[in-house]
Amino acid sequence: MRRRTVLLALWLVGNVLVFWAVALTASGYSLEGYLPWESSKVFAYSPVLHSKPGDEPTEVLYMVGRNGELYYYIVWRDEYFSNPLLDRLYRVMRGLIYGTTEDVEVFEINPENGSFYFQTYDHSPVHGKIFPDGSCLWLERGLSVPNCTVNGTHVKLYVVTWNHMLSLLPENGTVRVSPEMRHMTPEDYVALGMVKRTKYSIAGITFGSLTASLVVTVLLNLILFALWKRKLLLRGGRRNVKNRW
């Protein structure tokens, strides 16, 4: 009886692990939301980044929207939480969800009207606008930030939290950094699990990945059932042979 209970528990745990492993893997391989276009304004509007020494971004990957919108994805090697135990658990969770522990934050800007977007404390949105005098308007706060750009187009961004949330306001202890910038390739998009990080993570992707995981789980159980039944038949055959003798 105890052996059956253990086997049942292992079967249930195995099903859960297989289901979610396939779901998380399948959803990360989508190119939904990938933007292949280019723009001559990419380098003219790239953000000027300020980060704390020792926690600098490794690179900036950009994509261009159909109507010329510019998307800059700032990549860090990892996020480091202050509590060592929570930091390890958090890293495992990020690896499972995104397929990598790298952190990615986005800065979006429309060169046509100078409007931009990023996230600050608690992932709250920041919508802003560049003015000809080099200042910016932080719309959510109704705050005018003077001298917030370089050459009137490069918005100054400051890292203000351990998980790399950004701000227009200067942050003590940060220094200007200049990571390499290049176009995001389809391989980058998949490797970073971007479909799970962006607004393009729509229900269709979730439905597709869950469907794939359901199919794999059902097939695996059918195979296990067939093997189990075959084993029972073989046992029955052996017993019949013994009874004849």
Largest β sheet strand count, sense and barrel closure? 8 strands, mixed
Q: In angstroms, what separates the terminal alpha carbons? A: 31 Å
Radius of gyration: 26 Å
Low-pLDDT runs of 5+ residues are: 200-205
* DSSP helical segment count: 5
| Biggest β-sheet: strands ordered side by side in the sheet | 8-7-6-5-4-3-2-13
- The secondary-structure class comes to alpha+beta
Q: State the order of secondary-structure elements, H for helix, E for strand.
A: HEEEHEEEEEEEEEEHHH
DSSP strand tally: 13
Explained architecture:
The structure is a single chain. By secondary structure, this protein is α+β, with helices and mostly antiparallel strands. It has 2 domains: 16-28 and 205-244, no CATH class; 48-200, no CATH class. 38% of the residues lie in helices and 24% in strands. The protein contains 5 helices and 13 strands. It has helices at residues 2-28, 84-98, 186-191, 194-197, 203-244; strands spanning 48-51, 59-64, 70-76, 103-110, 115-119, 125-130, 136-138, 143-145, 149-150, 154-159, 166-167, 175-177, 180-183. It is elongated.
